[in-house]
Design brief:
The chain has about 240 residues and is α/β, with parallel strands linked by helices. It contains 8 helices and 11 strands. Strand 10 and strand 11 form a beta hairpin. Helix 2 packs across helix 3.
Length: about 240
Amino acid sequence: MHSIFVSDLHLSPERPHINQVFFDFAARIAARAESVYILGDLFEYWVGDDDLADPFNASVADALHRLSSKGVALQFMHGNRDVLVGKAFVARCGAKLLSDPMLVDLHGTRTLLMHGDTLCTDDVKYQKFRSFARNPVYQRLLLCLPLALRRAAIRRMRAESEKHKEGTSAEIMDVAQTAVERALREHGYPRLIHGHTHRPARHLHTVDGHRCERWVLNDWYQRGGYVHCDASGCRAEPL
């Protein structure tokens, strides 16, 4: 009995090699798990559930549906790239939509799940954009646009984001220690698993005398990886 955690896959038609890694992972590795948690940024970008007819999007949804139909509990959390994922996509995959953050009992250990971007509080410009992108009014207005206009708007936002990253230090874009400690304190000093920063590692934090484990998930730009957790603990597995 074990659970698997992934995030930041950034799947897109332009990256066929990683797409195939994902399809193989879903069919062989994930299918043996009790539960699979996707903690955001499954796609490079998602313009809305009305784009599910796109062949590539449908192929990803179908791979996840095959996984959930085998009895694997599939859990999905929004990231910053796929914030427009809605009920139709989740239903098509046979998944459950998680709030961010989400505290779960994971094989006997209290574990806090996050995408991770809310921990990057030193990146003030990003946090302002995040608040804007998560605004339900803005999302409804965006989803009213035709698909072509939506794609163009999101590509412009992605270009602006890349420009911002080029001019911002890696330290600012990483999690803030104070934000991590606050999250651990507010949720009773659990284990923490998150993605977003693309800095896979295992960290140990001492907060108010409590030792807390933090796992940062791989991005899948080059090869990918996941974290495997069971009653004995967690370990990182490359792909």
